[in-house]
Amino acid sequence: MDRAALRALFEAVASGSTPIDQALERLRTLPYEDVRFAKVDLHRALRSGAPEAVFGQGKTPEQVVAIVTRLAEHHANVLATRLTPDAAAAIAGAGLPHRYHAEARMAVIRPEPTSEIGLIAVVSAGTADVPVAEEAAITAEALGNRVERAYDCGVAGLHRLLDQHALLAEANAIVVVAGMEGALPSVVGGLVDRPVIAVPTSIGYGTAFGGVTALLAMLNSCAPGVSVVNIDNGYGAACQASLINQLIEKIR
User: Fold this and answer.
1) Distance (Å, rounded) from C-alpha 9 to C-alpha 182?
2) I need a surface site. Which of 46, 98, 154, 156 has the fewest CB within 10 A?
């Protein structure tokens, strides 16, 4: 249940085309539906503008299917992240309309076109960082944003990033994904007057410590306007970028 659906329901009740008892039945599961192993939040789109996303890691394929099925009954563009191959196959086997993105390990359930607003740029330092960058890009698209990608633009070949300066300057928000030493967000933050959401990845040799080195480097950035999300959290970065982008477009 989102704002548009709730408004349509109220208008139908007001016009008399939908009986009050029928409307009450449709509202019965708000604010959540208890499916024993999960309390599916059907109210989140009203509160935050987007339906609940399903974090697949640690859930069985059957649990993932049960939760996304409930959500898809009420929402389009339901996101399921960190899917195992078995969970992705279970979604397909359940006959749910979806689009699976293997590289990002995620699926969009009941995918529908969105009205794209503003621009979010998603930048990755290396090709190995692309899975996390794609999680961010696909999430941002599902949330209704226009997204442009600029991949493999790390600091070891800085000219590749400078070629993307026009894109960076146009974006309302920039998601920068990097592993290794995590330097790229600071460089981007020093080039443009746009908010930068830095995403450390777990990519790197031994002393990268599974992304901790990149995380600490980004937290210690000397560039103003850089915020940082957790290691490999492309989804969280996209949500933050989407809120910024949509707020800017409302002000305009």
Assistant:
1) 48
2) 156
